[in-house]
Amino acid sequence: MRGCRTAVAASLLGACALLPQAQAAELVVLTNQGATPGVTELGNAFARISGHKVTVIQEAGKALDARLANGPADVITGNPEQIEALVRKGQVVGGTETPFALASLGVSVRAGLAKPDISTVDAYKAALLAARKIGYSRGCSGTHAAEGIAKLGLTEVLKSKTVFTDGGPVVEFLAKGDFDLGIQQTNIMVGVPGTDYVGTPPGFLNDPCPSSAALVKVSRQPEAARAMIAFMISPEAAPLLRKTFVEPAKP
Questions:
Q1: Which of 160, 205, 158, 198 is nearest to 182 (CA)?
Q2: N or C: fewer beta carbons within 10 Å in the chain?
Q3: Which pTM does this prediction carry?
């Protein structure tokens, strides 16, 4: 196996001595949409440090079920509820669930529109009311956006002009003009063509989405996979996560 190239690897559960074989492990990491940017950054860094090959794949539905049942799959990331459900199904190894990131909610508008003031609760409320249509997903960020709207007492008021997205990031639909204001995780909203990022909702309305990583039961390289999970919560991982607009999970 190729030797580790930095001192960081010494803390990765013995990442340099994981395999007796002459070649490095080949890890497959399954991600959800919201975690993909950060996991890709971490996967690239872990590959450089350990000498292992890391492939990050965003999977859902039947494709995800097939990977979890038959592989290849070594690490999976998702919201904690999803990971716990997979533990109960016996598809993820219990006790390996590891929170690693928190993604703030973000607000974007279609390019060319004036950026609304969302700096205060009242301003955010006014921006939602003023938008022709608003959009968010049915995932974690959408659930938290809807909960915030409910706390503002606007659920019924906004119902007729709310668009729920499926099958892609909210900003893709925003860029096409399906609505004028979108809410999703900041890390998958910033810098998308056809949209302008505004900022995060104020105060209690910004309820971040957590992501956890865990070892997939059918992994053929469990020790290397455990080492990657350890790296994902190491001090070296924190700046890499922040580079993708998420924060490391709080201990």
A1: 198
A2: C
A3: 0.85
